[in-house]
Design a protein that fits this description.
9 helices
Length: about 200
């Protein structure tokens, strides 16, 4: 339903002020304690204006993500010819991005909102996750084509696992150290299955 159909006439400057205030509120208080009253006050808007434009705080957070008020690191994965080193460098850069306090707070808040709302989850994926998955998958596909990885490698699954592991560390508030990153890559590249022992004749 369009804004005109809902009987809304939006001021663009007020809308931007509301989204900026939402970003600041998410970073400071998290999703669970998100306060429409504080957002309205910080934006210089009436509380009823916020409620009239956004039917729920999920809808407000979704637009905040979609409009780019939540940071998204979408650096291209380097291609030096050595895929493991390229993935390590990308993961280290992602870890540095997540180590920034505001980035960490906003990503935690948005994942909490995504757990409650399909709309927020969709916008979070589109804005924050999808480009990273695509970049990692493309780099892994290139390694497959060069014979550096097995032809049956599920590159999309590997990309999801790498991103998921980093976000998990963020959510449990444990820094993804170099040792963690190296261990993650060891598991990815070496696998965890034990090779079947050869039969020994009597």
């Amino acid at each position: 339903m369009s804004d005109s159909q809902r009987g809304r006439t939006r001021s663009e400057s007020t809308r931007q002020a509301i989204l900026e205030a939402t970003r600041d509120e998410l970073a400071a208080s998290g999703y669970d304690k998100l306060s429409i009253d504080r957002i309205a006050t910080a934006a210089g808007a009436g509380k009823q204006t916020v409620y009239r434009w956004y039917r729920s705080k999920n809808e407000l957070v979704a637009e905040c993500i979609l409009e780019g008020y939540v940071p998204a690191r979408t650096a291209v994965v380097a291609d030096s010819g050595e895929v493991r080193g390229d993935l390590r460098a990308w993961l280290r850069g992602f870890a540095d991005f997540l180590a920034e306090p505001e980035n960490a707070s906003l990503i935690r808040a948005c994942t909490a909102a995504a757990a409650e709302s399909d709309e927020v989850a969709e916008k979070f994926y589109e804005r924050v996750t999808a480009a990273n998955e695509a970049a990692l998958t493309a780099r892994l596909d290139g390694a497959v084509r060069l014979g550096q990885l097995r032809a049956d490698t599920s590159t999309a699954a590997v990309a999801e696992a790498l991103i998921g592991a980093m976000l998990y560390r963020l959510l449990v508030r444990q820094a993804p150290t170099d040792a963690f990153i190296n261990g993650l890559l060891d598991t990815m590249f070496n696998g965890i299955a034990v090779s079947s022992a050869p039969d020994v004749g009597c």
